[in-house]
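Key result, reporting period 2: structure in, sequence out.
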């Protein structure tokens, strides 16, 4: 992709009810090992790409989109009410978002480069020796 090319990528949920598009490449991508992500996904870590919220466009499924906001703060977690697919999270003003890597239809062009909240990693699945940068708590912004 050259500097003059427009970035365009789509994604959505498992059943196809919710569809979205990005107009700018994600800023970063990484794995989160926090206990919220473990509970939300049922896995040891969540792979996600951070984007500028202004690059996000909801194409379909607004009526199927549901969100949950953690009582102690943090990004709202958004999912499809029909199939339960976890799609993205967003700041209160939606200026920052994290798109779940598996929600993209194709490779978004940015691989995960870090692991955050490794102090909370699931004991039943060791973190692989993959050379990615690790942060005991949240990755500094």
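The corresponding designed sequence is given below.
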């Amino acid at each position: 992709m050259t500097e003059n090319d427009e970035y365009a990528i789509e994604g959505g949920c498992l059943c196809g009810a919710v569809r979205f598009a990005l107009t700018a490449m994600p800023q970063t991508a990484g794995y989160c090992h926090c206990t919220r992500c473990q509970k939300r996904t049922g896995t040891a870590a969540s792979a996600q790409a951070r984007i500028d919220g202004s690059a996000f466009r909801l194409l379909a499924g607004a009526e199927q989109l549901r969100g949950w906001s953690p009582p102690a703060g943090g990004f709202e977690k958004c999912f499809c009410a029909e199939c339960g697919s976890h799609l993205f999270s967003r700041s209160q003003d939606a200026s920052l978002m994290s798109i779940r890597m598996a929600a993209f239809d194709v490779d978004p062009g940015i691989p995960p480069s870090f692991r955050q909240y490794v102090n909370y990693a699931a004991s039943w699945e060791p973190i692989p020796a993959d050379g990615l940068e690790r942060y005991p708590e949240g990755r500094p912004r």
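The CA atoms of residues 14 and 58 lie 16 Å apart. Residues 9-134 form a domain with the glutathione-dependent formaldehyde- activating enzyme (gfa) fold (CATH 3.90.1590.10). This case is discussed further under Risks and Mitigation.
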